Amino acid sequence: MTDDKKEFIPALGHDWLTGFYDLAIRFTMPERKFRNKLMDFLDPLDGEEILEFGFGTGQNLILANTKNGNANYIGLDIDPKVKNIAKKKFTKNDIEIQLDLYGGGVFPYPDNTYDKVFSSLVFHQLDKEAKISCLNEICRVLKPDGALLIGDWGKPKSRLMRGMFYSVQILDGFATTADNVKGLIPDFMVAAGFENVAEVGHVNTKIGSYCYYQGKKPSFCRV
Ligand SMILES: C[S@@+](CC[C@H](N)C(=O)[O-])C[C@H]1O[C@@H](n2cnc3c(N)ncnc32)[C@H](O)[C@@H]1O
After folding, report:
1. How much distance in Å is there from the Cα of 69 to the middle of ligand 1?
2. Burial of 72 by CB count in 10 Å (0-12 exposed, 13-18 middle, 19+ buried)?
3. Whose CA is nearest to atom 2 of ligand 1?
4. For residue 107, which of 3, 88, 98, 223 sits 20 to 30 Å off, Cα-Cα?
5. Predicted confidence (pLDDT) per residue in 118-171, tens digit
6. Model pTM score
7. Which residues contact residue 72 at a Cβ distance below 8 angstroms, ignoring those fewer than 6 apart?
């Protein structure tokens, strides 16, 4: 740990539910579809240094490693419980990927380290202050021209999607999810210094619209 541990929302809203996370995703989302699309946007290339922010139970890192085993992956999360779950899966699948924990403040990496940072279903669990500070940290640890890919709940694409998303809000809270519903994630990315920010796609699920956002750290950045 590099700093005092901040409070956080566990993967499924409550600590005691974390063991059911994979099951819940399998039943409520088209998991293969939304994760494969995430990997298509990530497009991991040989030799790239790639960070997953909020690796959870490790599903995305396993998929990324399958897509291209010649990129170098690292995961960062705040919850030791998900690290244990992910580690067990990696051991079972004979995968070696470094998984780091931190306290929710400064990321434990130097400036300009990663070619790509990606994150899935994390930002809707962060309050406004944490959204901003985590995006600033992501920008800091990305190399100039480095790419950020966020997959998370976005502005619902229909009334039905809006209605279904209340189930997520009941579990994860209305305060942290409100900015997602308003479609404000791209605005936060721009405020953190990213350029070419755009929503590039979405997948409708049983519990809301999962949206993909991309951005790039400028070539000449203040960091
Ligand atoms: C809903 S899970 C998503 C897991 C995985 N990325 C996925 O796509 O299934 C959210 C993850 O974000 C992590 N998380 C919550 N707050 C965090 C923070 N401040 N910094 C890093 N990770 C955080 C949780 O521990 C959890 O593993």
Report:
1. 23
2. middle
3. 11
4. 88
5. 999 999 999 999 999 999 999 999 999 999 999 999 999 999 999 999 999 999
6. 0.95
7. 47, 48, 49, 50
All structural domains of the chain, each given as residue ranges with its CATH number in brackets, are: 15-216 (3.40.50.150)
Q: Which of 59, 78, 138 to mutate to test the pocket of ligand 1 (most atoms within 8 A of CB)?
A: 78
pLDDT tens per residue, range 5-37: 788 999 998 999 999 999 999 999 999 999 999
Query: What whole-number distance in Å separates Cα of residue 50 and Cα of residue 58?
Result: 14
Tokens encoding 45: 């290339």
